[in-house]
Amino acid sequence: MKLLWTISTILLISSTVAGSNNGNTRLDMAAQRRASNIHRMDTIILLTYVSVMVLIVVTAWAFKHYRFRFIHESGVTLFYGLLIGFVIRYFGLGLLQSQTFDVITKNKTIVKEPPDYLMLEVKPEGGSRVSFHYELIEGFFADKRKKIEQQIEQKSVFSPEVFFNMLIPPIIFNAGYSLKKRHFFRNIGSILAIVFIGTTISCFGTGCLMFVFTSIFQMGYSFKELLFFGALISATDPVTIISVFNDMNVEADLFALIFGESALNDAVAIVLSEVIENFSTSSEAITLQDFGSAIAGFAGVFFGSLMLGFMIGCMNAFLTKMTLISEHALLESSLFVLISYISFLVAEVCGLTGIVSVLFCGIAQAHYTYNNLSDESQSNTKHFFHMVSFIMESFIFCYIGVSVFVTNNQRWSFSFLLFSLISITASRALFVYPLSWLLNIRRRPKIPKRYQHMILFAGLRGAMAFALAGRNTSTENRQMIFATTTAVVIVTVLVNGGLTSWMIDYLQIKHGKDAIEEGQRLENSMSSSPADQHSDLDESVPVTMSPGLNPWDKAFLPRKWYHFDASFMKPLLTHATPSLEQTLPPFCLPLTSLLTSSRQRAGETSSFDCE
């Protein structure tokens, strides 16, 4: 009897353990199946995007080869994205479906803020309870009407942090690194006025006009939300316009004004949006104290980021000067890329703006570090960032098209979109014409009316506005702002970008051979000094300036910076001559001898400056 009881006990325990093992086995199989499905979906999405990118490259070649002028490849890229998004949404490519459960807290308390993680207990049949942790997908908010969604729809959506940390920095760095300094700095006063004053007017003008419209039609927006919309939508995109300008070889000063605005106002727009968001949580009414703190915050963040990026660029220049890393082009190029990216990350960690930092790091690297690089590294870095910038821009435009159909964090309103287009255009006109009139009082040559009309027309929106709008879509108002920003990007790229070449001809803006001849005539009339003639070739060559003939001599600050740069910064950070041993007083000789390279002592000059 005792033997039978022992045997039955063993069988009962064995069956219990077997049941538990079977339950855990089924759970393991389900988890493995889910992991395989996710891997498959990720691969499908990557294959889709990479295939579309190949098609985009071929399309870009066809457009340049056959010289299509009435539509730009950026517009076609958007169309490809819209087509892919439409197919994903309505043709059921995602055969694997995901389930959405309504989750409530154990004590049924109301959750006031979205959690970072959710813990869900799963109890397989015959097995023990297992807790699964689910992470919040940033930027994705499921449609409340749908309980079952295609996984491919979810996987087609990226976190906004991917844009800010991976896609945007190379684009912004390339804007600074490929800056055409000669024409840029000749127009620096006008560019900075447009960037700082113009972007601020555009931000507040758009916000105020939208507040009037939404108040009349009782759409339920606060003034702070609309100011935030005005800030993010003030970021213009240079890709389409500048590509057409390059193909048509338009007048250099117009190119510099539009490119300079587009390259720099992204940084201003992102700082404005962050400042507005920071004080928008304090109260509903905006006070003078809010404005004062906003201005102080803007100045601190912007110029702090500027100095940080510039210092990191100078640090890399000094490092490449004082070492022999140029003997190893691979290591030299790798160091250049990594330090450039560090400028973005350090600024973000310090609570500054990485976009501003990486932009001015690019400008500093082009001005100093580029001269220290070997010929191979100069070519490698220049083409690498140009290529990466093109790929990232193309991907973002494609993703904008895809997001119209696959993201569920957008609310569409035709009236809000119409008001936005009117406000954006009016706000841009509000600073282009008055600011140009003020600048023309002292500016030589003046900004002609045809330039002003083209600057107004060139206000395309692109990657930065889209990324800023998609960073926070937690409320219905934010979702409508995101959808409207997406629509504004599509409309401006398709309409303004497609009509750019026609507008150039309509406004009688010189291009091609006429623009080259006009540029040469202007150069001869404005400057006859060797420095101005060779500023694009080798800025380290010592030259004798002709006072009064160089445009730099007409302004106090640019003149002082030019001499400080030539006598201290370039000898310190590059192999330029004369060295610090010659430009600084004799009592500094022990220190300057340590900071002078053998190439400087040998009288060698740096390579051609980045152009």
UniProtKB/TrEMBL annotation:
Lineage top rank: taxon: Eukaryota
Example GO biological process: regulation of pH
Gene Ontology terms, MF aspect: sodium:proton antiporter activity
InterPro entries per UniProt: Cation/H_exchanger_CPA1, Cation/H_exchanger_TM, NaH_exchanger, NHE-6/7/9
Residue span(s) of domain Cation/H+ exchanger transmembrane: 68-503
UniProt keyword annotations, A-Z: Antiport, Cell membrane, Endosome, Ion transport, Membrane, Signal, Sodium, Sodium transport, Transmembrane, Transmembrane helix, Transport
Localization, UniProt: Cell membrane; Recycling endosome membrane
Transmembrane stretches, start-end: 43-63, 75-92, 191-214, 226-245, 295-318, 338-363, 384-406, 412-439, 451-469, 481-504
Residue ranges, annotated region (Disordered): 521-542
GO cellular component: plasma membrane; recycling endosome membrane
Region forming the signal peptide: 1-19
NCBIfam families, per database record: b_cpa1
Family (UniProt): Belongs to the monovalent cation:proton antiporter 1 (CPA1) transporter (TC 2.A.36) family.
Protein name per its UniProtKB record: Sodium/hydrogen exchanger
UniProt source species: Caenorhabditis elegans
Lineage, opening ranks: Eukaryota, Metazoa, Ecdysozoa, Nematoda, Chromadorea
Gene assigned in the entry: nhx-5
